Amino acid sequence: AENAYITPGLLAHGSVYEFCRAGHLQPQIEKLKTLYAPRLKATLAALDEYLPEAEATRPDGGFFLSLTLPEGVTTMDVRTRATEVNLKLADGRGFFADGGGERFLRLPFCALNSQQLQTGVARLADVVRSAA
C-alpha cells in the first residue's frame, strides 16, 4: 500500500460529508478529546517517571507521541528486546522519508487505559536500559 494511492469509496465520502454537514463533527472531536487527554497525560507522566533520559514530544492532541531514545540506543536494539516483554514497536526509520529515525519510536496512547500505559512505559524503560 505504500506505493499505491488508495482512497475510500464514494459511500464513505458521502457518509462523512453528511456527518459533517449535520454538525456532528465538532461534538465528536470534543468527546474524543475528553476520552484521550487523560491517556496522553498518563503516558507523559509515565515517561517522566520511568524514562526521563528519552525525549518525548508534548503534543496538544493526536493519537501518538514521538520519543527519541537516548544516545547509543537504537530502535532496532529496543525492538528486539521489546518483543520479549510483549511490546510491539515499529521500526522508527519507516517514519522518515529521507533517512533518520534510528532512535525514533512512535508511541500510541489511545487504545489503552492509564494503568496499561504506565505498565507499558515501565517495560519500555527496562528494555531501553538493557539496550544501553
Automatic annotation (TrEMBL):
<dbReference type="InterPro" id="IPR015424">
    <property type="entry name" value="PyrdxlP-dep_Trfase"/>
</dbReference>
<protein>
    <recommendedName>
        <fullName>Aminotransferase class I/classII domain-containing protein</fullName>
    </recommendedName>
</protein>
<dbReference type="InterPro" id="IPR015422">
    <property type="entry name" value="PyrdxlP-dep_Trfase_small"/>
</dbReference>
<dbReference type="GO" id="GO:0047536">
    <property type="term" value="F:2-aminoadipate transaminase activity"/>
</dbReference>
